[in-house]
Amino acid sequence: MVLVLYGTEVSAPVRAVLLTLRALELDYEFQEVDLTAGDHLKPDYVSKNPQHTVPTLQDGGAYIWDSHAIMGYLVQKYAKDDALYPREPLQRAIVDQRLHFESGALSVRWKQLKHLLFEEKVTELPIEKLHETYALLELFLDGHEYMAGDQLTIADFSIVTSVSTAHLSIAPVDATKYPNLSAWLTRISSLSFYEQANSTGARRMAELVRAKLPKQFDKLWQKAFEDIKSGAGKM
User: Fold this and answer.
1) What is the DSSP string of 40-62?
2) Which helix (H) or strand (E) holds 20?
3) Residues that are catalytic
4) Do residues 48 and 21 make contact, with C-beta atoms less than 8 angstroms apart?
5) pLDDT band at 116; cut points 50, 70, 90
6) For strand 28-32 and strand 56-59, is the pairing parallel, antiparallel, or unpaired?
7) Whole-number pLDDT of residue 212
8) Facing residues of 62 across strands?
9) For residue 4, is pLDDT > 70?
10) Torsion of CA 162, 168, 173, 175, to 10 degrees
11) d(C-alpha 45, C-alpha 6), whole Å
């Protein structure tokens, strides 16, 4: 039976799973869940995922939600080797730590800023905390090409979806200030499956954010969004 992924590409966690599916070259069906229309609250969806979140993966009669759980499951069940999610205890612990950092720090900062922008309609966005997470990611990458060491893992997929969305919207990654993080973004964006699995959705989310940005951000972000529309801002 073909895997079924429920979600929307504007969601960073959904894109993290899409990156994993593409990396593993797995066949899957994508079912769009329109959050604005309340699709995730309909009885049929809630019966699959009582937390009514995205993404949700269907594998036969089993339903799995939470992007980190899904990515780990896919690698452990379908991958030819454990490169993307190492079995060796220390390597696994490092990958898990990065995943927890993404959900407990990076994703939290991004969600807080989205709430301020879309729900509270603030006129100023406090992005200092987001830059604190950038600084930590810069340290994680010190001496390494990837987030959990010297090989690509699901930690990179999870973190890049959040960072790329922020990078294209409210907090561009300054290559001078964050050289390791900037180089890593370029490295991950060069993956053959990156454009379709992550970049398209990240740009869509960036456009939604751009439409809500306070007026004082206009000059700061105008050039960046012109690049996004022209395709120059690949990440």
Assistant:
1) GGSHHHHHH-TT--S-EEEETTE
2) helix 12-23
3) 11
4) no
5) confident
6) unpaired
7) 80
8) 59
9) yes
10) 130
11) 9
